[in-house]
Structure formats: C-alpha cells, structure tokens
Amino acid sequence: QVQLVESGGGLVQAGGSLRLSCAASGRNLSTYGMGWFRQAPGKEREVVAAISWSGGMTYYADSVKGRFTISRHNAKNTVYLQMNSLKPEDTAVYYCNADDGQLPWGQGTQVTVSS
User: Fold this and answer.
1) Which of 36, 89, 92, 96 gives 40 a disulfide partner, CB atoms 3.0 to 4.6 angstroms apart?
2) CA-CA distance, 115 to 79, in Å (whole number)?
C-alpha cells in the first residue's frame, strides 16, 4: 500500500520561503508524473505544480509561476516544492500525488503565510 507523507510546511511571513518534501513508501514513484496540490479553506483542491517522471518537464499554475519550483529525486523516492516570495493567498494545506491524483492522498502539510 503506497503512502505519501508531506512535510516542511509552517508559518512564514509574506515574502518568505519554504521547501516542502513528499516522501513515498510502498511504491516506486519514478514511473509517475507527480504533482503538488493545495486546498485552502472553502476552496477546491487545485494543482499548483507538476513534474514528469524524468523531471524533464514541469508545469506551474499561473498563480505560482516564477515563485515555486518543483523537483524530484527518484533515487530517494521524494518530490520537492521550493516556494519563494510567499503570499498570504498561498495559505493552504499542500498535498503531493500522482499528477492525475490516482494515489491515496496523504495528510498534507499546512502552509500559513502571514501578511
């Protein structure tokens, strides 16, 4: 049974940075395109970034383009999200999953950006 564990969230002031990590157990993620998603209170879950299985292609939502960077380390079975120039509107619970959301969702990691 695959398990995704997100970490690295926290409370940060606007303009600050955080690096999220997503570690997987029970499944080799190297064959999956992976994504980071977020869900803010009262809103639907949305994809913010995605990366191909090889890392050669990436996608970013317009709202985070130029500020967030997704990367992966297949040998460590881990996916990362570097978040810079954080804004209050980035406040949400962040999740990783296959880019089509097919894997069981983890508990997520809370990111709170204060103004």
Assistant:
1) 92
2) 28
